[in-house]
Every structure is written in C-alpha cells, then in structure tokens.
Amino acid sequence: MVNRKKISIFILDTSAILSGKTINFDQDKVVTTPGVSNELQPGGKDYRTFLFLQEKGLAINDPSKEAIKRIHQIATETGDMSRLSKADIEVLALALDINQNNEAIIITDDYSIQNVANELKINFKSIVQNGITKSFKWTYRCSGCGKKFNENIKTCPICGALTKTTVSRKKNIER
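The structure assignment produced for this chain is given below.
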C-alpha cells in the first residue's frame, strides 16, 4: 500500500474574501462553497475580488449531505446552530469531507465557525482577527424563571420571559 502525503486544502469563508487581504495560492489548493458565492453580491469590490480568486484557481465545491447533517448535529450540541448561516454550515461540511483524505484548513474570522471546527478537530486560521482561544458550549436561560434550554428559544414556554444566551462550558483550546 502506498503511503500518500496529505495535501493542505484551504477553504475560504465569506469573511476571508471580504477582508480584502491577499490570499496566496502558491501550491496549495483553495476552495469555497456555493453558499459563500451566493453571499457575495455582483457589482462590488468584494465580488470583483471573488471573480479574481476564481480566475486564479479558486474552486467552488458542494459538501456532502452527510457532512451537512453532521455539522447540524455538532452545531446544535455546541449551541452555535442559530449563529451559523447556510454558507457557514457548507464551509464546515466541506472541511469535514476534505479531512477524510487531506488536511482542510478553514480561513475565517467567524468565531462560531471556529468553535464548531475546533469541536470537530478541523484546523482553522483567522485572517484579520486573533481567532478563538477558548471553546464554548452555549445554552439559553430564561431571564424570568431561570429555566435552561439547549435550543435557541426566544421566549420561555413556562413563564413567557425572554431568554438570554449563556455559556455552560468553556475550555482552552490547543492550537
């Protein structure tokens, strides 16, 4: 059996494209998802940057349905589901698919993407901000009666008060 070297594949989130930072392709493969493409509106500077990246070799790949399902499961467990867009979920799912044969590295400043990626042991790099140093599990607590919910419920079904987002678990991440 031949031992194949894993290739690093960078996955761009919308924040990486919007950052305006130079993205150097070199010999690494760079991909994104249709959801990221849909978040960039034609006509602006960011869209022109996106078109330029495509001309330089940026590929647009769909993640598998199984990976999307897994991301929904993990993001629900971490409490990040309500914070993730469709494009964010696609980026994470594509990384999950790529990690089966190669090394996926998500380029994003989105802390919820980073939190879910960390939970799944997917590498990520920030492009403008520092990136997360702790992983979180979010829960929702009623501001009236104090009842805790794992899902993002806006109004408490028990007393009718609004819920607040709270951290139920916080731990340092190793990077």
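Interim note for the steering committee: Helices lie at 14-18, 34-39, 45-55, 65-78, 86-98, 111-119. The mean pLDDT is 86.
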